[in-house]
Amino acid sequence: MRSESFADHFSQAALFYRSMSEVEQEHISAAYQFELGKVTKPEIRERVVNEILANFDAGLAAKVAAGLGLPAPKKGKAPPASEPQISPALSLLNCVKPGIKTCKIALLAAPGADAASINTLQQALRGMGATPLLIAPTLAVIDGLQPDATIAGMPSIMFDAVIVCGCESSAKTLAQSGDARHFVLEAFKHLKAIAALGAGRNVLAAAQLPDHADGVATGDDSQSADVLKAFIAAAEQHRVWSRATLAESVSA
After folding, report:
1. Domain layout of the chain by residue ranges
2. Digit-coded pLDDT (tens) for 136-148
3. What superfamily would CATH give domain 4-94?
4. What CA–CA distance (Å, rounded) separates 65 from 62?
Protein backbone atom coordinates (compact mmCIF):
# COMPACT_ATOMS: atom_id res chain seq x y z
CA MET A 1 0.00 0.00 0.00
CA ARG A 2 1.41 3.39 -0.97
CA SER A 3 2.00 6.02 1.69
CA GLU A 4 0.00 9.25 1.81
CA SER A 5 3.06 11.19 0.64
CA PHE A 6 2.80 9.44 -2.72
CA ALA A 7 -0.26 11.59 -3.47
CA ASP A 8 1.47 14.81 -2.45
CA HIS A 9 2.22 16.62 -5.71
CA PHE A 10 2.76 20.12 -4.34
CA SER A 11 5.10 20.17 -1.33
CA GLN A 12 8.26 20.03 -3.43
CA ALA A 13 6.95 22.70 -5.79
CA ALA A 14 6.14 24.91 -2.81
CA LEU A 15 9.59 24.38 -1.31
CA PHE A 16 11.27 25.19 -4.62
CA TYR A 17 9.28 28.38 -5.29
CA ARG A 18 9.57 29.75 -1.76
CA SER A 19 13.32 29.15 -1.80
CA MET A 20 13.79 31.43 -4.79
CA SER A 21 14.94 35.03 -4.50
CA GLU A 22 12.47 37.77 -5.41
CA VAL A 23 14.10 38.11 -8.83
CA GLU A 24 13.81 34.39 -9.54
CA GLN A 25 10.18 34.35 -8.40
CA GLU A 26 9.40 37.19 -10.82
CA HIS A 27 11.04 35.20 -13.63
CA ILE A 28 8.97 32.12 -12.78
CA SER A 29 5.77 34.18 -12.76
CA ALA A 30 6.67 35.79 -16.10
CA ALA A 31 7.47 32.38 -17.59
CA TYR A 32 4.07 30.98 -16.58
CA GLN A 33 2.33 34.02 -18.05
CA PHE A 34 4.34 33.76 -21.26
CA GLU A 35 3.71 30.05 -21.80
CA LEU A 36 0.07 29.99 -20.68
CA GLY A 37 -0.58 33.09 -22.78
CA LYS A 38 -0.03 30.93 -25.85
CA VAL A 39 -2.66 28.39 -24.75
CA THR A 40 -5.78 28.98 -26.83
CA LYS A 41 -8.38 27.39 -24.52
CA PRO A 42 -9.28 29.56 -21.49
CA GLU A 43 -10.39 26.56 -19.46
CA ILE A 44 -6.89 25.07 -19.64
CA ARG A 45 -5.31 28.34 -18.47
CA GLU A 46 -7.80 28.47 -15.57
CA ARG A 47 -7.13 24.85 -14.66
CA VAL A 48 -3.37 25.40 -14.40
CA VAL A 49 -3.85 28.47 -12.21
CA ASN A 50 -6.58 27.04 -9.94
CA GLU A 51 -5.63 23.38 -9.76
CA ILE A 52 -1.84 23.57 -9.87
CA LEU A 53 -0.37 26.96 -8.99
CA ALA A 54 -2.89 27.79 -6.26
CA ASN A 55 -2.08 24.48 -4.58
CA PHE A 56 1.52 25.41 -3.86
CA ASP A 57 1.61 29.24 -3.75
CA ALA A 58 -1.39 31.55 -3.69
CA GLY A 59 0.72 34.62 -4.45
CA LEU A 60 2.17 33.10 -7.62
CA ALA A 61 -1.28 31.97 -8.71
CA ALA A 62 -2.66 35.48 -8.22
CA LYS A 63 0.16 37.08 -10.26
CA VAL A 64 -0.25 34.64 -13.12
CA ALA A 65 -4.03 35.01 -13.09
CA ALA A 66 -3.74 38.80 -13.27
CA GLY A 67 -1.27 38.56 -16.16
CA LEU A 68 -3.64 36.29 -18.06
CA GLY A 69 -6.72 38.37 -17.33
CA LEU A 70 -8.32 35.57 -15.31
CA PRO A 71 -10.49 35.97 -12.20
CA ALA A 72 -8.71 35.83 -8.86
CA PRO A 73 -7.75 32.19 -8.30
CA LYS A 74 -9.61 29.89 -5.97
CA LYS A 75 -7.96 29.03 -2.68
CA GLY A 76 -5.84 25.91 -3.08
CA LYS A 77 -4.74 23.24 -0.65
CA ALA A 78 -1.74 24.34 1.40
CA PRO A 79 1.19 21.88 1.56
CA PRO A 80 1.64 20.07 4.89
CA ALA A 81 3.07 22.32 7.62
CA SER A 82 5.68 19.71 8.45
CA GLU A 83 7.41 20.29 5.14
CA PRO A 84 10.53 22.52 5.17
CA GLN A 85 9.69 26.08 4.15
CA ILE A 86 12.91 27.23 2.49
CA SER A 87 16.13 25.66 1.19
CA PRO A 88 18.72 28.33 0.21
CA ALA A 89 20.61 25.74 -1.85
CA LEU A 90 17.80 25.71 -4.43
CA SER A 91 18.30 29.37 -5.43
CA LEU A 92 20.73 29.94 -8.28
CA LEU A 93 21.40 33.48 -7.10
CA ASN A 94 22.62 32.11 -3.79
CA CYS A 95 25.29 30.22 -5.73
CA VAL A 96 26.61 33.21 -7.69
CA LYS A 97 30.24 33.95 -6.96
CA PRO A 98 31.38 37.54 -7.65
CA GLY A 99 33.98 37.92 -10.34
CA ILE A 100 34.24 38.04 -14.14
CA LYS A 101 36.22 34.86 -14.67
CA THR A 102 34.91 33.07 -17.81
CA CYS A 103 32.66 36.07 -18.67
CA LYS A 104 32.50 36.93 -22.37
CA ILE A 105 32.75 40.69 -22.86
CA ALA A 106 32.08 42.56 -26.10
CA LEU A 107 34.39 45.43 -27.03
CA LEU A 108 32.26 47.39 -29.49
CA ALA A 109 34.30 49.40 -31.98
CA ALA A 110 34.43 50.62 -35.58
CA PRO A 111 37.12 51.94 -37.94
CA GLY A 112 38.88 54.85 -36.26
CA ALA A 113 39.09 53.17 -32.87
CA ASP A 114 42.47 53.22 -31.13
CA ALA A 115 44.25 49.86 -31.07
CA ALA A 116 46.40 50.80 -28.06
CA SER A 117 43.42 51.49 -25.80
CA ILE A 118 41.65 48.34 -27.01
CA ASN A 119 44.77 46.28 -26.31
CA THR A 120 44.96 47.75 -22.80
CA LEU A 121 41.35 46.80 -22.16
CA GLN A 122 41.83 43.30 -23.53
CA GLN A 123 44.91 42.67 -21.37
CA ALA A 124 43.18 43.95 -18.23
CA LEU A 125 40.10 41.78 -18.82
CA ARG A 126 42.09 38.69 -19.71
CA GLY A 127 44.12 39.17 -16.56
CA MET A 128 40.88 38.77 -14.60
CA GLY A 129 39.98 35.58 -16.45
CA ALA A 130 37.42 37.12 -18.81
CA THR A 131 37.22 36.66 -22.58
CA PRO A 132 37.09 40.02 -24.40
CA LEU A 133 36.04 39.90 -28.06
CA LEU A 134 36.31 42.75 -30.53
CA ILE A 135 32.93 43.30 -32.23
CA ALA A 136 32.64 45.63 -35.22
CA PRO A 137 30.31 46.47 -38.12
CA THR A 138 32.47 44.38 -40.47
CA LEU A 139 35.45 42.06 -40.17
CA ALA A 140 37.75 44.65 -41.74
CA VAL A 141 40.94 45.23 -39.72
CA ILE A 142 40.73 48.18 -37.30
CA ASP A 143 44.06 49.91 -36.69
CA GLY A 144 45.86 46.59 -37.00
CA LEU A 145 43.32 44.63 -34.95
CA GLN A 146 41.21 41.86 -36.44
CA PRO A 147 37.61 41.90 -35.17
CA ASP A 148 36.41 38.60 -33.75
CA ALA A 149 32.88 38.96 -35.09
CA THR A 150 30.43 41.41 -36.59
CA ILE A 151 27.67 43.19 -34.68
CA ALA A 152 25.01 41.43 -36.76
CA GLY A 153 26.72 38.05 -36.50
CA MET A 154 27.23 38.03 -32.73
CA PRO A 155 24.54 40.12 -30.96
CA SER A 156 24.82 41.25 -27.35
CA ILE A 157 22.64 38.39 -26.08
CA MET A 158 25.76 36.25 -26.57
CA PHE A 159 27.80 38.34 -24.13
CA ASP A 160 27.84 38.89 -20.39
CA ALA A 161 28.74 42.58 -20.62
CA VAL A 162 29.56 45.30 -23.17
CA ILE A 163 32.20 48.03 -23.46
CA VAL A 164 31.74 50.71 -26.12
CA CYS A 165 35.21 51.86 -27.10
CA GLY A 166 36.05 55.52 -27.53
CA CYS A 167 37.39 57.68 -30.42
CA GLU A 168 35.19 60.13 -32.29
CA SER A 169 35.10 58.48 -35.72
CA SER A 170 34.44 55.02 -34.28
CA ALA A 171 31.65 56.32 -32.05
CA LYS A 172 30.10 58.29 -34.93
CA THR A 173 29.93 55.16 -37.08
CA LEU A 174 28.40 53.13 -34.27
CA ALA A 175 25.92 55.85 -33.34
CA GLN A 176 24.65 55.91 -36.94
CA SER A 177 24.33 52.12 -37.07
CA GLY A 178 20.92 50.67 -36.22
CA ASP A 179 22.59 47.33 -35.43
CA ALA A 180 25.01 48.96 -33.00
CA ARG A 181 22.25 50.90 -31.25
CA HIS A 182 20.21 47.71 -30.96
CA PHE A 183 23.30 45.95 -29.58
CA VAL A 184 23.56 48.29 -26.59
CA LEU A 185 19.77 48.58 -26.16
CA GLU A 186 19.46 44.83 -25.87
CA ALA A 187 22.35 44.63 -23.42
CA PHE A 188 20.69 47.32 -21.29
CA LYS A 189 17.32 45.59 -21.36
CA HIS A 190 18.89 42.26 -20.40
CA LEU A 191 20.44 43.95 -17.36
CA LYS A 192 24.04 43.52 -18.46
CA ALA A 193 26.87 45.77 -17.33
CA ILE A 194 27.79 48.44 -19.89
CA ALA A 195 30.75 50.80 -20.10
CA ALA A 196 31.29 53.63 -22.58
CA LEU A 197 34.65 55.32 -22.83
CA GLY A 198 35.09 58.87 -24.11
CA ALA A 199 33.10 59.42 -27.29
CA GLY A 200 31.59 55.97 -26.81
CA ARG A 201 28.99 57.74 -24.68
CA ASN A 202 27.58 59.15 -27.91
CA VAL A 203 26.51 55.64 -28.89
CA LEU A 204 24.45 55.32 -25.70
CA ALA A 205 22.97 58.76 -26.34
CA ALA A 206 22.06 57.77 -29.92
CA ALA A 207 20.29 54.71 -28.51
CA GLN A 208 18.52 57.02 -26.03
CA LEU A 209 20.00 55.19 -23.06
CA PRO A 210 20.79 56.99 -19.79
CA ASP A 211 24.53 57.08 -19.08
CA HIS A 212 24.03 57.26 -15.32
CA ALA A 213 21.77 54.25 -14.81
CA ASP A 214 22.76 51.42 -12.49
CA GLY A 215 25.38 49.22 -14.09
CA VAL A 216 26.34 51.80 -16.74
CA ALA A 217 29.85 53.21 -16.32
CA THR A 218 30.98 56.19 -18.43
CA GLY A 219 33.77 58.72 -18.42
CA ASP A 220 36.39 60.56 -20.44
CA ASP A 221 39.36 58.69 -21.85
CA SER A 222 41.45 60.06 -19.00
CA GLN A 223 39.07 58.34 -16.56
CA SER A 224 39.35 54.91 -18.18
CA ALA A 225 40.76 53.26 -15.04
CA ASP A 226 37.82 54.49 -12.94
CA VAL A 227 35.31 53.51 -15.62
CA LEU A 228 36.80 50.03 -15.87
CA LYS A 229 36.69 49.64 -12.09
CA ALA A 230 33.01 50.60 -11.95
CA PHE A 231 32.26 48.36 -14.93
CA ILE A 232 33.95 45.36 -13.29
CA ALA A 233 32.03 45.96 -10.05
CA ALA A 234 28.77 45.74 -12.01
CA ALA A 235 29.81 42.89 -14.32
CA GLU A 236 30.97 40.62 -11.52
CA GLN A 237 27.39 40.49 -10.19
CA HIS A 238 26.44 39.02 -13.59
CA ARG A 239 23.19 41.00 -13.87
CA VAL A 240 22.19 44.50 -12.74
CA TRP A 241 18.93 43.50 -11.06
CA SER A 242 18.32 47.02 -9.70
CA ARG A 243 17.84 48.21 -13.30
CA ALA A 244 14.94 45.85 -14.04
CA THR A 245 12.13 48.41 -13.69
CA LEU A 246 13.91 51.01 -15.82
CA ALA A 247 14.73 48.38 -18.47
CA GLU A 248 11.02 47.65 -18.96
CA SER A 249 10.68 50.94 -20.83
CA VAL A 250 13.42 50.03 -23.30
CA SER A 251 12.34 48.66 -26.67
CA ALA A 252 14.75 45.96 -27.75
Report:
1. 4-94, 104-247
2. 999 999 999 999 9
3. Catalase, four-helical domain (1.20.1370.20)
4. 5
